[in-house]
Amino acid sequence: MKKTKTGFFAFLIGGMIGATVGLLYAPQSGEETRELLKNKGQELTDEAITSIKEAQNSALETIQEAQTRLETLNEETKERLGKLQEIAKHTLQEQKESLVKGYSDAKATVIE
């Protein structure tokens, strides 16, 4: 049902546009009208192609910007992970040394 209404409205709009064009250009000869419509059609086609190319370029720029941001985030993440690994190694070494020292101190206390 919805498709029928949409098709009907499209048909009506197309008919109105056609009637308007016919009325506007009626004083001209058929050949002049055809030439005018041909030129207008070409202009609209050119504009559509230009719009599509601009949209493609915009999309490519957006993709490239996103890729650059992702690469930057990737590098920052690698740097942060490296720092965290160093902190973890340092903390682990400190804990080992503390345990060894605590064990040595406890052993020395027992021997005395």
Structure, briefly:
The chain has 112 residues and is mostly helical. It has helices spanning 2-24, 30-111.
Number of helices: 2
Mean pLDDT: 81
Question: Which sheet architecture does the biggest sheet show?
Answer: none
Radius of gyration: 38 Å
Return the domain count. Answer: 1
Report the portion of residues in β strands.
under 5%
Please tally the β strands and state the result. Answer: 0
**Helix content class:** over 70%
What is the overall silhouette?
Answer: rod-shaped
Low-confidence stretches: none
> Structural class of the helix and strand makeup?
mainly alpha
Straight-line N-to-C gap: 99 Å
Order of helices and strands: HH
List keywords for this structure.
about 110 residues; mainly alpha; 2 helices; about 95% helix; rod-shaped
General description of the model:
By secondary structure, the chain is mainly α. 94% of the residues lie in helices and 0% in strands. The protein has one domain. It has helices at residues 2-24, 30-111. The longest helix is centred in the middle third of the chain and has 82 residues, at 30-111. The model has no long low-confidence stretch (mean pLDDT 81).
